[in-house]
Specification:
With 909 residues, the chain is an alpha+beta fold. It is built from 26 helices and 35 strands.
Length: 909
């Protein structure tokens, strides 16, 4: 067969393998801008042009490209000049993590007409942005600013990696060529609960190219948790690399390492496993009943499991006051049970890792992780390695949302690398993300609330059951967090919470944006609206009457947390935004549709409890620019930009003179990780302290060098200024070097004391009673983020959080069969929000200045998610009169509820 094609003007005649798709063909030749997001034509991350026509290269056979011209995102720029579309995406910052950006660029570059973007982008998905920034990019809206030296904080500084993102040269986890790389694939369990009685791997070794097969016989005996926290004891030690007992459909059984993915997959198919199938339980309430199958038969003290025999991972019981007295004092009491479903993080870059040995014998692990330092600690503990023998590094991470606060690939990759002393790669498929990674915890929440006639709350009571799935990673933490700020935001003399994190034989749950708060807030904020309806009060008035005020204690069912403070207060202003939005005239709904509006609020701590640590180093470089070393990872959260802004602001320079090194265990001493919305308030504070310390050093050394009073000096863009005289920073560095001085400073922050952030969401909706279709007419979000470091980026975080929450509220659902098998293991079955599904949310920032946050800032990554579901449910309740207590609010569920209320209604289908 004669095969040839041109890729970005470069001619090649290398023939593709039989059946090879164009995506893998291009990536194998170094065109890493072509991404793998789904391998099913659903997400568009792999979009390229074939003879000028955009195609999904994961579906396009490479052989069909013969004789054609292929253009990837790397080929859009010509003669050193960005394509106009690339420049527009830079100007608007039409990206966050950037993993989807190449696909959007290639689709946009081929558009002749941009009037119908929902149709144009029907084949492209973005999990981060909420799509508004992408639309602005297409329309040519410019948001980026270039502030003067020292004035970077509070301005729309561009992301440092922006040029690499839009040209396809940003390097994500697998965007590198490792010589001699071997590929690892996993055999997974077909059973929800079984013991492996025999496993025969001999036939797998007969497959040409298979180098190694790993089973539970090869795994370390040590138990650990895939969840990564600063305090290891926060999660139960219930997991092995490979176990002889499988506890959910999709659990690892064995691994095959081979020269190619195809050989590894064939090796997996040839492994013969004999299972002793056991009874399984997939309902968390049933799992706690006497006689239920036990998921983990382990010692409570050794494992950290609260009650293994009852499948209870952890439990919480707390009460302040006496709720019985509070309900007796109430004029109105309302009680109901609410249920939230499993949701997938759906970050477009799947989980995965590579491991290899350097020439000096040091092990390097490159991972798509939010927690490189904690992953190193876990790997060293698991395999008995010293810390200095292992380096963990994260490239640019293609989305996280909490899902990459886990060790789901690194352990097995390291096990294989240690055995073979060869580079090994494991990259999850999209299907594996659904049944082999983690999901948001499904909750059942019963809320009972009492109030007096004037709306004053007298008692709040929660009963929470969380399905942690087959393993307890994050189970205790999510449960405790869910019952914290959700109750503490309201003044009420009597509060009680009983909560259980329960094992089942379902796919494991894990950390997800909001960390349990969203599930309980959906229930609690819905109940408060019902109380208001029973009392004949405006729901907003009821909230205003009961929320905590500045200077008041924040009390949950266990009392007051010592290190949590109202260091700034913007909740009142948030509610004012909601009130103003309600007063404005609304977009008319289609004739015959039902219209309603609703709101909800949320509070969240700005960092996890009991310490979250970050180290940073800021140094003057020989050329007079600065180097910032910080451990936290960048996955679209924008912390890299904020750290650059903080350093530039304190050092009196511009952002382009600050270089960032990050997410690498060789860079700084320690960093707990990029989770819990800590990138700005913890790592940012460490950067601030380091920058302040360096500024002090620079001015002190310059004063001595010049023989002048230090108070007469100031830092400028590239110099130390004394009156009309300027000492260039590179000259200062030379003088320091000559004197044996290194101009470098460290900063540290331990994450405490902590403040709180507030959010309020308001919707006006229309519902078609004939079809159940729900249309959002207007969406308004008020965010109390303290001093907003970068309004453009922070707005994107809010919009992305609202969009993700809308997906979870309206249609996203990881569905499972009776035995726990995931039945929605592809985007087209699961349905992520597309461009056409997401309304443009109006984002308002409050004018607060936090006393604890760096330069007055607070966190704003997780919190926008939390009030969305109850606000939408409250709006639907106002429109239809129906209180929906279970998510998602799918069209069929809405229609059935309305049909049952019609005279003679009720559908037997």
């Amino acid at each position: 067969m004669s095969f040839e094609l041109d890729v970005n003007g470069q001619h090649t005649e290398a023939e593709p393998r039989p059946g090879q798709c164009l995506r893998t063909y291009l990536r194998e030749r170094g065109w890493f801008g072509v991404k793998k997001g789904c391998d099913a034509g659903d997400c568009g991350a792999c979009t390229v042009h074939v003879d000028g026509v955009p195609v999904h290269s994961c579906l396009y056979p490479a052989v069909r490209a013969s004789g054609r011209e292929v253009t990837t995102v790397e080929g859009l720029a010509r003669d050193g000049e960005l394509h106009p579309v690339q420049q527009k995406f830079l100007d608007a910052q039409g990206f966050q993590c950037g993993f989807c950006t190449a696909g959007f660029l290639m689709t946009t570059a081929a558009l002749e007409d941009t009037t119908d973007l929902p149709r144009a982008f029907k084949g492209n998905l973005c999990r981060c942005t909420g799509y508004r920034a992408i639309e602005d990019a297409v329309r040519g809206v410019k948001h980026v600013e270039e502030p003067a030296a020292g004035e970077t904080v509070g301005r729309n500084l561009a992301a440092p990696a922006g040029p690499e993102v839009v040209t396809g040269t940003a390097r994500y986890t697998f965007d590198l060529d490792v010589p001699g790389l071997l590929h690892l694939k996993l055999l997974r369990s077909p059973h929800a609960h079984a013991r492996i009685t025999a496993i025969d791997t001999s036939a797998a070794y007969d497959v040409p190219g298979v180098r190694l097969v790993l089973t539970h016989h090869d795994a370390p005996p040590k138990h650990f948790s895939s969840a990564q926290h600063e305090h290891v004891e926060d999660d139960p030690a219930d997991t092995r690399v490979f176990d002889d007992v499988v506890r959910h459909v999709g659990q690892r059984v064995a691994a095959v390492v081979a020269d190619s993915e195809a050989a590894a997959e064939e090796g997996c198919r040839r492994i013969a496993v004999t299972y002793e199938v056991r009874p399984a339980v997939t309902d968390p309430v049933a799992a706690m009943r006497p006689g239920a199958p036990v998921v983990h038969e382990k010692d409570p003290e050794a494992s950290g499991i609260a009650r293994p025999a009852d499948n209870v991972v952890a439990e919480l019981h707390g009460e302040v006051g006496d709720v019985a007295t509070g309900f007796a004092d109430a004029d109105v009491v309302y009680e109901n049970t609410f249920r939230t479903q499993r949701v997938q993080h759906a970050s477009l870059e799947t989980h995965g890792a590579l491991a290899w040995f350097e020439d000096d014998g040091r092990l390097v692990v490159r991972s798509s992780t939010q927690v490189p330092f904690l992953t190193r600690r876990a790997l060293c503990a698991l395999f008995g390695l010293p810390d200095d023998a292992v380096r963990v590094v994260a490239g640019r991470v293609g989305g996280g949302f909490g899902g990459k606060q886990e060790m789901l690939a690194e352990d097995v990759v390291v096990l294989a690398a240690l055995r073979l002393r060869r580079p090994v790669k494991l990259e999850f498929t999209r299907a594996e993300q659904f049944f082999g990674a983690t999901v948001r915890h499904p909750f059942t929440v019963r809320v009972k609330a009492g109030a007096r006639d004037d709306g004053t709350l007298t008692a709040l009571q929660l009963h929470v059951v969380s399905d942690t799935g087959a393993y307890g990673n994050h189970g205790p933490g999510v449960m405790f967090h869910a019952c914290g700020e959700s109750l503490a935001v309201y003044r009420c003399p009597h509060k009680k919470a009983d909560a259980y994190a329960v094992y089942t034989h379902n796919v494991p749950s894990g950390a997800f944006r909001g960390y349990g708060l969203g599930q309980v807030i959906f229930a609690l904020e819905s109940v408060l609206d019902e109380l208001a309806h029973l009392l004949g009060l405006d729901p907003l008035v009821l909230r205003e009457r009961n929320v905590i005020k500045a200077g008041e204690p924040m009390i949950d069912a266990h009392g007051e947390e010592e290190d949590l403070h109202l260091a700034s207060y913007g909740l009142g202003e948030c509610l004012d935004i909601v009130r103003a939005a309600r007063a404005e005239p609304g977009e008319p709904a289609p004739e015959g549709w039902l219209v309603g509006e609703g709101s909800a609020l949320a509070m969240i701590a700005t960092a996890p409890p009991r310490g979250h640590f970050a180290d940073a180093t800021v140094a003057l470089l020989p050329d007079g620019t600065y180097d910032v070393a910080v451990g936290t990872a960048e996955f679209g959260n924008g912390t890299t930009t904020v750290h650059r802004q903080i350093a530039a602001g304190r050092l009196g320079t511009t952002g382009d003179r600050i270089a960032i090194r990050q997410s690498d265990t060789d860079v700084v001493r320690h960093d707990t990780g990029a989770f819990g919305s800590t990138g700005t308030v913890v790592a940012g504070k460490a950067v601030l302290r380091a920058a302040d310390a360096l500024a002090d050093q620079l001015l002190g050394f310059a004063a001595g060098h010049l023989g002048v009073d230090r108070a007469a000096l100031r830092l400028a863009e590239d110099a130390v200024v004394h009156g009309e005289n300027r000492l260039l920073l590179k000259e200062l560095h030379q003088a320091a070097a000559a004197a044996g001085r290194i101009l470098s400073a460290d900063g540290h922050f331990g994450g405490t004391p902590r403040s709180v952030a507030f959010n309020a969401q308001w919707f006006r909706v229309a519902v078609d009673p004939g079809t159940g279709e729900l249309r959002i007419l207007r969406s308004v979000h008020a965010a109390d983020a303290g001093k907003v470091m970068n309004p453009m980026q922070c707005r994107g975080q809010v919009e992305g959080g609202v969009a993700q929450a809308l997906g979870a509220t309206l249609f996203e659902h990881v569905r499972t069969a009776a035995d726990g098998t995931v039945t929605t293991a592809a985007f087209r079955q699961y349905r992520l929000p597309a461009f056409a599904d997401v309304p443009r949310t109006e984002v308002h920032f409050m004018t607060t200045d936090d006393a604890l946050g760096p330069l007055g800032a607070k966190s704003m990554s997780e919190s926008p998610f939390n009030p969305v579901a109850p606000a939408l449910a409250n709006a639907v309740r106002a429109a239809t009169g129906v209180r929906f207590t279970e998510l998602p609010l799918t069209r069929d569920r809405v229609w059935l509820a309305l049909d049952q209320r019609r005279p003679g209604g009720g559908c037997s289908a």
